Amino acid sequence: GGHLPLPKIPGAPVPTGRKIPPAWLESGVVKAAMTWDEMAAQIGVPAAELAETARRFNELARKGHDDDFNRGDSVYDNYYGDPTLPNPNLYPLGDPPYYAFRIVLGDLGTSGGLRTDEHARVLRADDTVVPGLYAVGNTSAPVMGRSYAGAGATIGPAMTFGYVAAKHVAAQVANRAANTHRR
After folding, report:
1. % helix, strand, coil for the chain, step of 5
2. So which cofactors does this thing need (predicted)?
């Protein structure tokens, strides 16, 4: 039972009028099959589980709610979806051919990072500053918390806090230089 691991899930239908480039199929990057059993053999998963996963996905797509992964529950998800569907992010898997390709997990880097203060200085767990250490962009905790506002949304905060950090470093250097000359 259960769902297949992410790298084994077949893709959605190819939109009408579009074709999978033959080179992708010939290279084996994309697999094509006329049945779920045939696809299961090509991607190395149990046929019964693949067929059940497809059946369950179609059931949820028609119902309009993804009870398993909550796809389509956020405004961001729905913005890029198809508003004519019960759930803009789910489209039932239709008639063959079916296509599959390996999905390699990655880290976008916008939901974690080092905590910083208003000068972009890195903070320890006790909220004290780590002297000389600054973090901006995807190395720092996002100003948006656990939300993801969309593609490019991290660029503005990265530039802003990069500027803030640079101004703070410059002020620290100027203060040290002024104190050195006073001695």
Report:
1. 40, 10, 50
2. FAD
Residues 20 and 83 in one domain: yes
* pTM summary value: 0.55
Q: Indicate whether 40 belongs to any domain.
A: yes
Is the CB of residue 113 less than 8 Å from the CB of residue 141?
yes
The answer to whether residue 1 is domain-embedded is no
| Total of domains in the chain | 2
d(CA 115, CA 135): 8
Confidence of residue 170 (pLDDT cuts 50, 70, 90): very high
Question: Do the Cβ atoms of 136 and 161 come closer than 8 Å?
Answer: yes
Query: Can you give the pLDDT at residue 106?
Result: 66
Residue 70 Rama label (left phi>0; alpha psi -120 to 50; beta):
left
| Residue 78, burial from CB neighbour count under 10 angstroms (0-12, 13-18, 19+) | middle
